[in-house]
Fold each of these.
Amino acid sequence: MEGLTRSEVAKQCGVNIESLRYYEKRRLIDPPPRTPAGYRMYSREDAVKIGFIKNARNLGFTLNEINDLMKLRVDRKKSCDSVLVKARNKRKEVDQKIRDLKSMRKTLDQLIGKCEKSVLTNDCPILSSFESAKPGKKLQGGDHGPQKD
Amino acid sequence: MEGLTRSEVAKQCGVNIESLRYYEKRRLIDPPPRTPAGYRMYSREDAVKIGFIKNARNLGFTLNEINDLMKLRVDRKKSCDSVLVKARNKRKEVDQKIRDLKSMRKTLDQLIGKCEKSVLTNDCPILSSFESAKPGKKLQGGDHGPQKD
DNA sequence: GGTTGACCCTGTAAATAGTACAGGGTTTAT
DNA sequence: ATAAACCCTGTACTATTTACAGGGTCAACC
């Protein structure tokens, strides 16, 4: 019987053992086949999927969004259109996240630089990391409301 | 009485009204002063802080991590050393997140490209987004266990 | 002054994501 | 055969966020 046990997958992917059961319950992964004793046996593809989930979660995607991401594939049955729309939206989100993180990194670098030169600052410089969400500026039309499928 | 009400801050920062109470309970923000009737009145700095929290959450930081980030400042009282260590660690985390997101963006671009050309395929290209977490490769010594402060 | 609607307060409960644990079975090794 | 290290299930807990019920306050309008 080829396959990986729960703890093996968990170790390789850096997730908690229990999360695997949770992802199964949430239907992010298919229920893996079992050994005669009832032990789950994960395939290599399962492990890849789980690694992906772990990373995407770490980047702030919800499980629902991750499910969407994983369903993004070019399917013979459907036209590409819905996939394209979703992929482009995700791309925009990812792009914004990168910009925000770069901004944060820049701020951290400045802080580190000051620290190395022992320049004292009592205010918290990192708070000004995000130009995009600075309050006091009215957002025009940029409604960040709940995103639907 | 100068200040912003709960709903004003929530609107400006793009957070749910109720989150403000939660952040107060979790001590990420100081309890704001109240009007005679007991209404919370947030300062501009509160709003900046809340906007920061919102963004950092969106990037996958936990509230505890965000609290750490907000406490990063060069203080007369303490030596810079601990700040330096923390800032550098955060920088590393941020850097890794950027790398992961870039990898994801690349995959999305490939998917979009395929989709635009209507190249039909049934496997899910997005799963290969994260080279950094590819299972099947033994991590040597790189224990990604729980990160401590 | 009274009423209405939009706001605020509190406490509590739900939903999502993840973890922990109890009570028990299985595998492996000695 | 017995101990250690796994696995199973169900359940219950944390963290973060959101929703709701029951009630008070404010501004406007008649």
Amino acid sequence: MDVTATQLLHLRPRELTSAVLCAVIFRQFSATIRVQKEHVGVPNLERIILAALDIGRRKGFHSTTTRDLAEASGLSMGAIYNYVDSKETLLRMILAGVDYAVEQAIVPFDKGEQDDPTLRLHGLIRRHIEVSDILQRWFAFAFLEIKSFDKVARDSVLQSELRNERLMADAIAEGIARGIFIDLPPMRLAAMIMPLLQDWYIKRWKFRQRDMTSVAYVEAVINFVDRAIARPM
Amino acid sequence: MDVTATQLLHLRPRELTSAVLCAVIFRQFSATIRVQKEHVGVPNLERIILAALDIGRRKGFHSTTTRDLAEASGLSMGAIYNYVDSKETLLRMILAGVDYAVEQAIVPFDKGEQDDPTLRLHGLIRRHIEVSDILQRWFAFAFLEIKSFDKVARDSVLQSELRNERLMADAIAEGIARGIFIDLPPMRLAAMIMPLLQDWYIKRWKFRQRDMTSVAYVEAVINFVDRAIARPM
DNA sequence: GATGAAAGTGAGCGAGCGCTCAGTTTTTTT
DNA sequence: AAAAAAACTGAGCGCTCGCTCACTTTCATC
């Protein structure tokens, strides 16, 4: 996995696995990680982060102890501190992973890639749901643990949400200009689509219970939104 | 405030203040609360709960220490334990308050009160946003701290969400039967309205930043939903 | 397979946590 | 205003937490 190359190519949602994210994090945090070899460090870092996401989902990050992480990851407490110099850093790593995924999968899908506003909006919706489906625990963690972050990290999550909203608002504005969408403030319409996208990783319990797949959900959201923003005849 | 009477009358959203909820909680938890006089106990209980909601919003409930609560509420640590025999009980009290508010303001608004499906759906949306506007911190706490609850409490929150969805789905089903709404599974449509309602108390920072009032949000959601579920011509 | 480097181990530390209780203050009753 | 009841106080207890480090094991290189 050559990270330099992927940064130029932009990864598609399906290529953004936890392993890929952990490789990126391993490099990005090399200053604080004491382990040097990637072939050892990346799989172990992934064990630690997946354990943190898994336990954090059930108990919350603050209730997740380093002893929990050691047991769940199969590493000793001392080994964990070769990768993460504090729980705070672990939080930042996970956040960096989510940032990277959004940067790779959603942001590049702008006007250059697709001119038609309806298709562009559909693409943004589809990519958001697809990437958050694969990285469900990462996205849910960032959303639900936002209170645990410091101000800088918290703002970066909120800015990321606003940027995604703005990408959708751009497509909607274009559709309004072409007379195919209803003439309402684009940011306001985009703000009503965002929670529908986030619901896919926040309410997983509900969708699983109803045997809904991500593909079916993408379709349902797109149809719902299409009707809501279509210009009335 | 006579609770027996209000349980028969059903309170409207605007009457469901934190003070009212704390009075109800004070009675409901009289077995574990050592303070007996309501005129002393209810205001103090409210100080404790509002402190827990306020600190919990910023740091999360698990990072909220009993010393934090003592300082913020103006009571000593010992006094707090006259009201709450453990942090776990405090969690249950807040949840009981939210349950009561939903029970009072949203659930009674069913077919008996309003026959027209469109108006019934509008009423459910409006009441949900209104009550969660007044009790914003309570609702946000229940949503974001759901992981901190035990299984029984967690299930009760999820069941409450499903019940609210079902109320909306009933109105939608009626509208479909009358040929005025699009013929799609009512529960699926209701599931796409729910996150729009929850967004009002989860993303308060965003709406405040945009100077949006709850009245304007109610209108925006109603219009958005109306277009999305209207039967195509 | 010897040797130095890299990585892993887990008992133990200081700090801070939830919670208690013997004593004090305030309120109510008479 | 004295007596009894109700409510409040905060230092301190036992425990668990995040984190460390002297030591052991594993790996890479020749």
Amino acid sequence: MNNNRNNTIDMLLDYQIKRLQDLIEEILQCCKGQASYLSSKFDIPEAELRCLMLFGSERYLTAKSISQRLDVAKSRVTKIINGLIQKEMVESIIDPKDARIKLLTLTQEGQRKSQEIVAIIADLHRKLLLELDSEQRKMVLSCLEALRSGMEAVKKQRV
Amino acid sequence: MNNNRNNTIDMLLDYQIKRLQDLIEEILQCCKGQASYLSSKFDIPEAELRCLMLFGSERYLTAKSISQRLDVAKSRVTKIINGLIQKEMVESIIDPKDARIKLLTLTQEGQRKSQEIVAIIADLHRKLLLELDSEQRKMVLSCLEALRSGMEAVKKQRV
DNA sequence: TATTATTGTTCATGCTGTGAAAAAAATTAG
DNA sequence: CTAATTTTTTTCACAGCATGAACAATAATA
């Protein structure tokens, strides 16, 4: 009989489930801590920081595209952008081709600040990777990739 | 000269930093999605769900211990517990040994519901692990462990 | 031209969270 | 034993995160 065998396998899996839950929870807590650290360090709310980071890849963004990238409602974006405009880090101009659209872009100060923040975040991740040796780094990245696609797969099943 | 060599190494590290950032962001998004899925499925706010899960390991909890475990202010716990009491999932009794302390415990309904939720969460994690083969599972767990301790280490440097 | 679709704002609502102040009870110092 | 201190919890004011409905302005289409 492989009843015993199956039992052992199930017990291992149950142990792994518990361990996975605990690890994910702790990692989540670390990420939350880091976000709130950056937020208080720069005195910018977390959502505004996340928004600021989007301008790294593109010069002009619209409220709609920001709402898609941050995965929040458009009305939320209005508030976030208002915060950044008040801080004079972002300015908006009306699209000359389409008066409905506001093109959002970083001010000089916004660019300076956002580059500073990008550098600090990269540095934190650099330090994190340097806690691991070269082999571990590759391994961790490929494991995270596996985890990510596993999570996406489970999400699909969930529906 | 190993200048070229160092340059190559730095480029690899920069690539890994970017990849790590992207992976972490996507995984975080998945976790957020799962939490909000459970919250709407059971019609219980996320913070209350997190609180409910604490009763798995102990029969009685105090506001103070909950605040430590959830890592939130005590005043926040008051609100969370009030929500659970209104839903008749938790009840509080005054500690006979110390009238300052309220002992919080699950009602029958609360126990039933919380066991149901625990089972569903475990099932999601089981599905996630079963997306991987046996070797990958072990690897992923040890990589998460490495990541976690790396994050803790970086957190300490941060201060 | 009239209808429909898109873009963004405003508003009401609810959840998450903090910190200061206060009330009640227990502990400790004198 | 009384007075001062500490502990536990609650209340309140505040701020941030986030949604969805309703609306106005503009553009595209029939």
Amino acid sequence: MSRPRLGYLLKHANLRLSELVGAALAPYGIDGREFAVLALLDSPVPMSQLDAARRLGIDRTTMVAMVDALERKDLVRRRPHPDDRRKNVVEPTERGHRTLGGARIAVDAAEEEFLSALSGGDAGLLRDVLERLVPPPAG
Amino acid sequence: MSRPRLGYLLKHANLRLSELVGAALAPYGIDGREFAVLALLDSPVPMSQLDAARRLGIDRTTMVAMVDALERKDLVRRRPHPDDRRKNVVEPTERGHRTLGGARIAVDAAEEEFLSALSGGDAGLLRDVLERLVPPPAG
DNA sequence: TATTGTTATACTCTATAACTATA
DNA sequence: TATAGTTATAGAGTATAACAATA
């Protein structure tokens, strides 16, 4: 039979990784997308919703819903930006930090499982190659 | 800054490839998903809708809609399976074959553009590595 | 005038449940 | 009883348009 298309491979690689990450994060009450936002907001420089949205390549209206969900779970907090009152500074709560601690380890383990069919060298190479294919985050 | 997560890289690699393939296929009046179905149905062995769905890892109800769309465009034809009247044999029409001829070249070019930041060796390696990460199609 | 956050809304993709017809 | 196709429907996930507050 013919080889699978690149699009098929990327789509299904994505699906499989999403399943593994989703299962790994379930005990923490968040999904992969919420984890990505939470991890990004755990930053030394204060980040507005728009900053975060640009970094993740999603729309600012989507970010509103993500931050809403994280705030409902008491994992992040909105506060007004001191110098520009149009902006929110969004930052993890104490609970958010604790959650993130465990969640990072869980996600690392899920990625490791996803890559377990590869040698360490090939796994690293996959990362390097993908980074060269993907436009760097804006901001 | 920290390195992007594997999930981010796979998602955005997918998005970029989809855009390129979508643009390449626009002149043929089909999108990437329809192309995948049409290319799969262009097979020496007759394929039912369920066969095709399993191969692409999508639901059979999704396949109904895809075949509907391709049939409306006169690119495929349903006919009853000679030995099992529960099944449809779905096969490209003459127009489907002609469309596929050009579309394959367009998609190959789009993939090449997607991979253009990589050496030929790295591009081949990406394929090999992804194939090892993705479960092979059922059937 | 432009930017940030927000809301309402709509669109795409996909799956689940229930039905029909065949086996 | 199980399978193939179909329909109706619902759920993610996402974006566009329009608005208020602020710059």
